[in-house]
Amino acid sequence: MLKSDATPARKTPSAPDGNAVPKDNKRTKVAAGFLRQIEPAEPAIVEGAVSDQTPSQDAPPAPEPPQSSVAAHPHEIELKLLVDADRIAHFNAAPVVAANARNKGSRKHLRSVYYDTPERMLRRNGLSLRVRQSGARFVQTVKTEAADDPLRRGEWEASVASLAPDLALAMPFIPEKLRSHLEARPLEAVFTADVHRHARMIDLPSGTVEIAFDRGVLTASDRSLPVSEIELELKSGSASAIYEVALRLAEHGAVKPSIRSKSARGFDLAAGTPPAARRPRKLRLDPSVTLDEAFATILRSCFLHLLQSLPAAEDGRNPEGVHQLRVALRRIRSALDLMRSVGALSNLDALRSEARWLAQDLSAARDWDVFQLETLPTIAKACPSIAGFDALGRAAAERQSDAYRKAHHALDDRRCAMFLIGLGNWIETRGWRNDVAAEDLGRLAEPAVNFAQRILSEQYAKVLKRGRRFKSLTMEELHRVRLATKRLRYLSEFLLPLFADRKSARKFARRLAGLQEELGAFNDMAVTASLLDGLGAAPDGAIAAAAIAGWQARASIGVRPALQGTWRDFTAARVPWSSQG
User: Fold this and answer.
1) What distance in Å separates the CA atoms of residue 438 and residue 430, rounded to the nearest whole number?
2) Among 137, 474, 480, 499, whose CB has the most other CB atoms within 10 angstroms?
3) pLDDT tens across 18-46, in order?
């Protein structure tokens, strides 16, 4: 059964992945707060069409590129903002630009063609192949995500004679097992990007930023999609300069930080599919890592998940988008709560409050998705003789539409953009170092594994305490167990990677997930009852509503024995952070 609150344990049906191809940018970048080192790495081979595939983290490095054909690039720090097409000139005249730009800047016309096999072999393996024309120059680019970080990408450029690709020049950067497939299958043009760029230099006391206004169109067969975005690239000085510009632009008008590439948008356009919503990636933490580095890794993972979920949530066609966005916001809040254990941090409450605000405005959309996609059709199918399910579905659809309007309003709100930019800045600059009291700074340099043992032990003890005399717990008491279990689940996702070499860690994580899943079934039922009460269904849907209520009341009794067994399994699992783990 689908879950009505944001936990990573359950999924609604999702669309094919729209984010497999790396971002259409270069070198070292900050995308909505993420510092990117663009460096070579060989992707893994993934056989068959799949969603949410990324290059393997164990992939070997790619061979050194031939110096004669591959361009070397300086490092870049860049932030990308999406804006409405009819407002881009408005941002070009923003006070921060008008008052600080050196001159009127330069203009370029960039035409790019993206290629792949008919089976989309490159895209399915996390690669993209593009040829871009700028004036009389043609440059072929191969891009891939690197093995150790979802935001680190390999990029290799080579000059070619025309917009037609030269596969021989790309082969050194293609995994060996994929090369024979590419040689046997012809490449085809999938879509084009036609972009007009106006770039200007902005000088601030904190640094120099190049601001590029990109406006154009992606075209795939008879489909098209407008491109309207602002790219902020740090040329010199402090990274704070780029955020100063971004925040002042956000104050000037509606902007949306994004890490979704032109390539991902173009391939989705060609396939006619909505953006994918990815589940969070599994963290990898070395047992010797410091607490400061662990915090940075955890927060970057949570923020990445949030940014990856935004396009699908904004698009609205894939219900997994809202779900994963809520999961990401809850993970952000859990990570911020975790950091409270170090000491008082002045910005934590404000960041957590903004994450909570956004999550609350998404909650109704998620609840109605669960009701419409899982609860209602499942019970209607099991009770064919009962009338009124269609009427109930129509009434629920109206509430679902209202909930999505509320969610989209929140995502379009300037407050959301300010939150994202501010959070990204705080993470990338490790702002907690400035927030934490001087007497607590030393704790950040301590081994994270010691911190993890203490925090996990404390939360585990809370779960056991709330679950005491489990068989006799009331629904309200089970709800309290569920909340404590959920927190332990998130903490375990963050900190158990420090113990990942132990079989007990994997076993404990599986049993914890199973317990949360079973407890979540009770919460589903409570949410459904609340939704039905609020529907005020017409008489022709009242019988169906009563059938749903009765079905779930009976189910709540039936799942008790299984839940008790799951609790016993969980409490019997050895905790992986113990000295005997």
Assistant:
1) 15
2) 499
3) 333 333 333 333 333 333 333 333 333 33
Specify the DSSP element, H or E, that contains 188. Answer: strand 188-204
Residue closest to 355 by CA, chosen among 428, 435, 397, 410: 410
pLDDT digits (tens, 9 = 90+) for 536-552: 656 778 889 999 988 88
Q: What angle do CA 194, 308, 24 make, to 5 degrees?
A: 25
First-residue to last-residue Cα distance in the chain: 33
Short-list 577, 408, 407, 421, CA closest to 501:
577
Q: How far apart are CA 473 and CA 155, in angstroms?
A: 57
Is the CB of residue 432 less than 8 Å from the CB of residue 339? Answer: yes
- What digits encode the pLDDT tens for the residues 202-233? 999 989 999 999 999 999 999 999 999 998 88
* Rounded Cα–Cα distance for residues 190 and 210 (Å): 31
What residue has token string 């059709």? 377
Q: Answer whether 0.90 is exceeded by the pTM.
A: no
Q: Which amino acid is at 65?
A: P
Q: Is 286 exposed, middle or buried (0-12, 13-18, 19+ CB in 10 A)?
A: middle
- When the pLDDT of each residue in the chain is averaged and rounded to a whole number, the result is 82
Strand partners, 200: 211
Site of tokens 């279990």: 485
